[in-house]
Design goal:
mainly alpha
Length: 283
């Protein structure tokens, strides 16, 4: 009888495992785990470039190739407005943030399943694994940005005095990127087909985002709903307006994108923490 009681009685509350979904607790857990994020990012960067012939130059290969392709497309399509900037600069200003987003999502989405042994051995906030991939992509984006400086010199086009306004779009970009990376990482553990779908979705997103065209090509009445669904559109528009047009942010678009990104980030955190409890069982 005693044994049956022991087997059917629930464990004391103090022994039950709990995972808080409160944003404050999540931020605290991630902040305490920042040495882990830095270590994982450093390991990933070394692994990417250690035995590569071009080394760190690979960080600029993808955006440069896409820039060349889009420049040819823009020159053939005379109706595309490059906002007074050379086609190469017009496309590259958009490609750097987009490449950061795309690589963060594709690598972050696989971060849990690719490091499942480490996930199950180390006690830490498991958000650190997709966040480490986002950090790695951020380093690559900074390296890729150096090409933009070269383009300004070679094409003799100076960035506008309003360039510092571009910084206001950075938190929106980070929030949206982290949200999608966290959600993709959690869902991929349960639905492995997502790992094959992510590159395809990023290719579709490349065409659905105003990279080789301006957001002004979209009807004004649809721009707000558009940036709510795709905050990167507002981010890229803000970068272009600040750097190559010479005007401040379009606050209606940026605020709509910021609200959408914040909601997505909150939902992604809740989703990640809810699905996290089954990572070990599913793997």
């Amino acid at each position: 009888m005693t044994a049956e009681v022991l087997l059917t009685t629930e464990p004391p509350k103090e022994l039950r495992f709990r995972r808080s979904n409160r944003i404050v607790d999540v931020v605290r857990d991630v902040w305490n785990a920042r040495p882990m994020i830095r270590a994982l990012a450093e390991r990933e960067i070394r692994a990417q470039y250690k035995q590569a012939g071009l080394g760190i130059a690979w960080a600029v290969v993808n955006p440069v190739i896409l820039m060349l392709v889009f420049t040819l497309l823009i020159r053939r399509a005379a109706s595309i407005d490059t906002l007074g900037a050379p086609a190469a600069i017009f496309s590259y200003v958009a490609l750097v943030p987009w490449n950061f987003f795309a690589t963060s999502v594709t690598s972050g989405g696989l971060s849990i399943i690719n490091q499942m042994q480490l996930v199950n051995k180390i006690r830490c906030a498991r958000e650190v694994f997709p966040l480490a991939q986002v950090t790695t992509s951020a380093v690559n984006a900074v390296i890729a940005s150096s090409v933009m400086v070269l383009l300004f010199v070679v094409l003799r086009f100076a960035p506008k005095a309003t360039t510092p306004w571009a910084l206001v779009a950075l938190p929106v970009q980070l929030a949206f990127t982290i949200a999608v990376a966290l959600a993709a990482a959690a869902i991929t553990v349960y639905l492995r087909d997502v790992r094959h779908a992510l590159p395809i979705l990023m290719q579709i997103g490349l065409l659905a985002t105003p990279i080789f065209y301006s957001i002004d090509e979209i009807d004004r009445d649809w721009q707000i709903p558009y940036v709510i669904m795709n905050p990167m559109a507002a981010v890229i528009t803000t970068y272009r307006d600040a750097i190559i047009v010479g005007r401040g942010p379009r606050w209606d678009l940026l605020i709509a994108a910021a609200i959408s990104s914040a909601v997505m980030l909150y939902g992604a955190i809740r989703l990640f923490r809810r699905l996290e409890l089954g990572f070990a069982d599913v793997a």
